[in-house]
Design goal:
The chain is an alpha+beta fold. The relative contact order is 0.09. The chain is built from 14 helices and 11 strands. Helix 13 packs antiparallel against helix 14. It is elongated. The chain has 2 domains: 122 residues, Spore Coat Polysaccharide Biosynthesis Protein SpsA, Chain A; 226 residues, Up-down Bundle (Four Helix Bundle (Hemerythrin (Met), subunit A)), CATH 1.20.120.
Length: 387
């Protein structure tokens, strides 16, 4: 089946995230499922077309949903006048001229849509649940120039954030990450370039852990986790992502944590040895618990998704909240950082092992509860979807 053509209606010199509006819209349309950019005159009468205002700022998932709704015009409240303005439309070529006229109207949209078309706002078209980023949020739809660029950047940046994530990523990184993302965009840096810098920092941190150089290694590790946030946000806000970039970023995220914890064990091993053979045995066991627990947790996440078709940490509010502190990379690194500050990095490794064991116990208890509920015929749905 041919992809619908993309038609950008009007023109603007305004920019967002240091990009020309047309460049960003073209990327957004392609990611949302639209095809090549055409003009109105190039459209065939029966050719489907995705029309979008040149000054529109639309969340990608909203555009994706609109493309699946023929004969629909997206409207959004106007910030400068009462009522709503039309921002985009999914139409057949024969209806494109009337839809384009509605998009070009600077005033509020009329009460009645053009014949054969229907109006819908962001929530009606895109819903209020983002299944990709696992959060409850109505997608945004705005016009460049109607709101300050800073507000639009905050909207687009906030929309790129996952709902279920660790407490550092969710509460500490957003403000600095938005400003660093803006700086990267202004200098034309790509997400893959940022990922490469984070990869270098990952190796430097691992070397520092092995050497027991906590004052150097811990800040480098946090810088790596920070850039791990920035590269994904840069890709989403500039619509500049690729299959390779996704594999590159997530591949690093998946592989490096066990190597960090091993390196930490090596660096703190000398101190652990001074505490006697019984402590060393417990110390060695702790490393095995952490590494095996990491693998088991990944298996648990895959098993929950396979069995119940949702991710475990978005099932109920408890799971959503527990994801912020469960034994993943950033919470574990926080525990190790505190232990290094206190001068007991070896005890930090044991504390992480204990937290890994507790987290695994919680996860598998929840897995058992879900299995029992499903056996009883009760649906397993995310509370974010009203389940």
């Amino acid at each position: 089946m041919a992809l619908p053509a993309t038609v950008i209606i009007g023109d603007t010199r305004l920019r967002l995230w240091s990009q020309p509006a047309a460049t960003r819209l073209g990327r957004m349309a392609a990611r949302a499922g639209a095809g090549e950019i055409k003009t109105l005159h190039q459209l065939g009468a029966d050719e489907p077309a995705f029309l979008v205002c040149a000054d529109a700022v639309i969340e990608q998932r909203l555009a994706t949903a609109l493309i699946q709704m023929p004969s629909t015009v997206l409207t959004a409240p106007s910030r400068n006048a009462p009522g709503s303005a039309a921002l985009a439309a999914m139409v057949q070529g024969r209806d494109a001229a009337e839809a384009a006229e509605a998009l070009l109207t600077a005033e509020t949209a009329p009460d009645a849509p053009p014949p054969g078309l229907s109006y819908g706002d962001a929530e009606a078209i895109g819903g209020s649940y983002d299944h990709v980023l696992r959060k409850q949020a109505v997608p945004f739809a705005e016009r460049l120039g109607d709101a300050p660029n800073d507000l639009l950047e905050r909207l687009t940046f906030g929309a790129s954030y996952k709902g279920a994530t660790d407490f550092v990523t969710k509460y500490v990184w957003p403000w600095p990450a938005r400003h660093v993302t803006r700086w990267c965009a202004s200098w034309g840096l790509t997400p893959n370039q940022v990922t490469t810098v984070s990869l270098i920092l990952m190796f430097l941190a691992m070397w520092g852990f092995c050497q027991g150089q906590w004052l150097i290694a811990v800040p480098l590790a946090w810088m790596m986790t920070f850039l791990d946030t920035v590269d994904g946000k840069l890709a989403r806000v500039t619509m500049n992502s690729s299959k390779f970039g996704n594999f590159y970023d997530h591949g690093i995220d998946l592989i490096h944590p066990p190597f960090w914890w091993w390196a930490w064990a090596v660096g703190a091993g000398g101190l652990a040895a001074t505490r006697g053979p019984e402590f060393v045995e417990m110390y060695d066991l702790a490393l095995w618990v952490i590494v095996i627990g990491y693998v088991v947790q990944r298996i648990y996440e895959g098993a929950f998704l396979w069995l119940f078709k949702i991710e475990g940490h978005i099932w109920r509010p408890f799971d959503f909240a527990f994801r912020s502190i469960t034994a993943r990379r950033n919470p574990n690194l926080f525990i190790l950082m505190v232990s290094a500050i206190l001068g007991v990095p070896d005890y930090g490794l044991i504390a992480v092992a204990a937290w890994v064991a507790i987290s695994m116990g919680v996860h598998f208890f929840r897995l058992g509860q879900a299995a029992l509920m499903q056996k009883q015929g009760r649906p397993i749905r995310s509370f974010l979807q009203g389940g």
